[in-house]
Design a protein that fits this description.
Blueprint: E1 4-10, E2 19-25, E3 33-42, H1 45-51, E4 74-82, E5 94-98, E6 115-119, E7 123-125, H2 132-137, H3 139-149, E8 174-178, H4 183-194, E9 198-203, H5 208-213, E10 218-221, E11 234-239, E12 253-261, H6 270-276, E13 279-281, H7 289-300, E14 308-313, H8 317-326, E15 332-336
Parallel strand pairs: 8-9, 8-11, 9-10, 11-12, 12-13, 14-15
Antiparallel strand pairs: 1-2, 3-4, 3-6, 3-15, 4-5, 5-7
Length: 338
């Protein structure tokens, strides 16, 4: 007899109202996997993209999965079973993970649920001094900032460019973080500061006090002034927002500097960058338990922290997705199911 659990499932692509809280089969666990009782799970942009069927992408990239799907990648919870070939984790361990990303990006990684099976290589012990809500808010945003700014950590082909993304030295350099109030942005500010950079945060005015508290040396309210008109000779701009006209920041970067694009799809400044000697680079974030363990030490010691925009019970996932669509998110949105 199949064991059941509660989960939020998607039976057809569409809006937040398509997310249904219902009974679903509990996942089975492979010999190199760990079964986790999920206590909290955070929302990330790929959750919304998949819910909508990736309609922002060219039609040839649209997924054709088998419904129903269970969205979500970022979890914090407790180990309830361990595969026979797994070492390093035990029943009762508090853990966190970004589950099967990008491998399951087009079909759902199964995190909006009471239980999820996780490859042991993608799992790390939860930082002890933070709660499950903060731990669940970390994985994708933290790994994105880490892989862009600190260590790529893998040799997988880069789907966005022909060359491997390589982080640049940050100590003593000037780093501009565009979209600094968001999930990736607020962590990028803290990691760049930890690495010894002078950090300029670009966001709306409601984020200024927070970002200065997180270590930003300067703050620019993009709703009042065009940041590219006041920032000159930056060593690196990391854009976490995407969208159009990101290439405007090229005028703010010194010769030989770099621009890192978390979402590169609308960038059109390749020719100008080449003329200015600016390296433009991007990469696809990938699951890594080892990197979550390394970065987790910064969370545990309070060197960096995860800001929570809002929390919702799991059964209100549709409301959480509506919040995500409303914009002006400060940090992360988290679903809880204690």
């Amino acid at each position: 007899m199949t064991e059941m659990m509660k989960a939020v499932r998607l039976h057809a692509f569409g809006g937040p109202e398509n997310l249904k809280y219902e009974d679903a089969p509990r996942p089975t666990m492979g010999c190199t996997e760990v079964l986790v009782r999920v206590y909290a799970v955070s929302l990330n942009p790929p959750d919304g993209y998949l819910r909508d069927g990736y309609r922002a992408l060219p039609p040839e990239w649209w997924p054709h999965p088998h419904f129903p799907l269970i969205l979500g990648t970022d979890i914090s919870g407790v180990v309830v079973a361990v595969g026979k070939n797994v070492s390093g984790f035990s029943i009762g361990d508090e853990v966190y993970s970004m589950v099967r990303f990008p491998e399951r990006a087009m079909e759902g990684s199964g995190a909006y649920a009471d239980y999820v099976s996780v490859p042991a290589s993608e799992l790390a012990l939860k930082p002890q001094n933070i709660e499950h809500v903060q731990a669940a808010g970390a994985p994708m945003s933290l790994l994105t900032a880490w892989q862009f700014l600190v260590e790529l950590g893998h040799d997988a082909p880069n789907p966005f460019q022909s060359f491997k993304h390589t982080p640049v030295p940050l100590k003593g350099r000037t780093v501009v973080v565009n979209g600094a109030g968001g999930g990736v942005g607020h962590l990028a500010v803290q990691i760049a500061k930890w690495k010894g950079a002078r950090v300029i945060a670009v966001a709306s005015s409601r984020n200024e006090a927070l970002l200065r508290d997180l270590g930003a040396d300067e703050f620019i309210d993009y709703t009042k002034i065009a940041p590219e008109t006041v920032v000159k000779n930056a060593d690196l701009v990391i854009d976490t927002s995407g969208g159009t006209h990101v290439e405007r920041f090229l005028s703010s970067i010194k010769q030989g500097g770099a621009m890192f694009l978390v979402n590169p799809l609308h960038f059109s400044g390749q020719k100008e960058a080449a003329e200015r000697g600016i390296t433009v680079s991007t990469t696809q974030v990938r699951s890594s338990g080892a990197q979550l363990s390394a970065a987790g030490s910064l969370l545990e010691t309070g060197i960096i922290r995860v800001v929570i925009d809002s929390t919702y019970p799991l059964q209100m996932a549709s409301a959480a997705h509506k919040r995500a669509l409303s914009g002006s998110i400060q940090g992360k949105i988290v679903l809880t199911h204690f």
